[in-house]
């Protein structure tokens, strides 16, 4: 049993009077949750309390009791096959499994209404991150309950954008990095309408890979003018495996938006400014180099070869090579 001092017990409710603290400790003693340490002595007050206590642990169910609970005590929607073969795992997960069982037995009708992952997680386990950062997914798998069965949906980061006009149709430009987004926005705010010879009405800050998930909810996140027929979406990111990979992921999605195309003029300008490839920075390690290749189809053979040579050399060109005087 774990030992705890009277001082530690009192510290949990620092604003209470001694009489309130005394009543709380006596209640815990009556419920069997505490036992006084006989040789610890008392605090010398009236009424007196022991200076130290043992925290009693509830009796753990036996193997037979666990098996009977699995067979007869859980909601039938929960598969018991895994836990019957792994009783120690069930003992560890038991409180979470029982909460899931109680929810399915008493509140299954709530599943008819879709909820976000965190909302459903809190509804079942009173922990909003249980299905994202904790062991919720593992326990569902052990229980044979799918995420789809819980009727939940994923939430994407809403994208940030600047719109100089809401006229339609219009060109929109997705930008991978924040600095380029701010520079181009400032360029438009100063009265320019064209960037590298192309007119844009809206700039969208992608925030790296986050933009892929954001565009999965394009129909919900984007304003109506952004979804108008005839709009054209361009993409501009770092010239490295990751930046090109982000474009390819966006281009593979099938949503309510026009599939993006590379903003070729910007990439060509990057190559023009990177006249000495040897001075380019080293690409970060661990990037996924399995590109589909669609990106390069928008460029001439010579330009595509230049890009591929930079990638093969382990180099990259950041968007930030361009600034306002280049636009």
Structural features:
single chain; 327 residues; alpha/beta; three-stranded antiparallel β-sheet; 12 strands
Outline the secondary-structure elements:
Blueprint: E1 2-5, H1 6-11, H2 18-30, E2 34-36, E3 52-55, H3 63-72, H4 81-85, H5 87-106, E4 115-116, H6 117-125, H7 136-143, E5 152-153, E6 160-163, E7 171-175, H8 178-189, E8 194-195, E9 198-199, E10 202-205, H9 210-216, H10 218-221, E11 232-236, H11 241-252, E12 261-262, H12 264-273, H13 301-312
Parallel strand pairs: 4-5, 7-10, 7-11, 11-12
Antiparallel strand pairs: 1-3, 2-3, 6-10, 8-9
Structure description:
The protein is α/β, with parallel strands linked by helices and 327 residues long. 39% of the residues lie in helices and 12% in strands. It has 13 helices and twelve strands. It has helices spanning 6-11, 18-30, 63-72, 81-85, 87-106, 117-125, 136-143, 178-189, 210-216, 218-221, 241-252, 264-273, 301-312, and strands at 2-5, 34-36, 52-55, 115-116, 152-153, 160-163, 171-175, 194-195, 198-199, 202-205, 232-236, 261-262. The chain has a five-stranded mixed sheet with strand order 6-10-7-11-12. Helix 11 (241-252) links the parallel strand 11 and strand 12 (261-262). The longest helix is centred in the N-terminal third of the chain and has 20 residues, at 87-106. The relative contact order is 0.08.
